[in-house]
Design a protein that fits this description.
Order of helices and strands: HHEEH
Largest sheet: 2 strands, antiparallel
Distance between the termini: 48 Å
Radius of gyration: 34 Å
Shape: rod-shaped
């Protein structure tokens, strides 16, 4: 590690020692922040994994019900039946604060619309199962989008924090320590040289 190119004086030494103290404290705080971010990231990541598995399971069930229903119903009637709904969905986005970062929070707002006149002839119990699963599926998809976006933001912040931690740990702090050691040695040499000159002057005067 190359030391800093500075004059080996006591004033510079004091300044570097202060900078080393600040850098060490900053490194400690950033390391604590990094560890906290990683712990929080893992919480969100595990929640997202569980939710994604649930969504995959629900999608597979809905797809199976659709495939079976398509064997027993006309495709046009099946599609029309699936498109009938009594609500209109709106997704509202707000911002929340996590470790000083702005992360999204999504909320579903459903607006009741005029009920469609669904014929009993079109009804099929598998289509009914799909419609029952659909509202929960919508909520899960919104929650998954929120979790994955939050994980992306946290991962980006973890990467940035880790770079700063590594820069302090492997460059700034060792560089300051090496420079401080160099200056102390130079000052000690200057003191010994000064003492030697004083002793010589004293011997001559005697």
């Amino acid at each position: 590690m190359a030391r800093l190119n500075v004059n080996p004086t006591r004033m510079v030494l004091n300044d570097l020692q202060k900078r080393l103290g600040i850098a060490s404290q900053g490194h400690k705080l950033l390391k604590e922040k990094q560890d906290s971010l990683i712990r929080q990231f893992m919480v969100y990541f595990e929640q997202a994994q569980v939710l994604r598995k649930q969504i995959d399971t629900d999608f597979a069930l809905m797809n199976r019900n659709y495939q079976y229903a398509s064997l027993e119903m006309d495709e046009s009637i099946l599609d029309e039946s699936l498109q009938q709904t009594q609500t209109k969905m709106h997704v509202e986005r707000k911002q929340e604060n996590v470790f000083g970062m702005s992360v999204p929070h999504y909320t579903i707002r459903e607006e009741q619309i005029e009920e469609s006149s669904e014929s009993l002839y079109w009804s099929h119990y598998r289509i009914d199962d799909i419609k029952k699963t659909h509202p929960e599926m919508k909520q899960h998809l919104i929650e998954l989008a929120q979790l994955e976006k939050t994980c992306f933001i946290l991962a980006k912040e973890i990467k940035s924090t880790r770079r700063r931690v590594n820069a302090l740990e492997y460059k700034t702090i060792p560089q300051l320590e090496e420079t401080i050691t160099y200056i102390k040695l130079r000052i000690d040499d200057q003191v010994r040289s000064q003492q030697a000159r004083v002793m010589k002057v004293t011997e001559r005067s005697e």
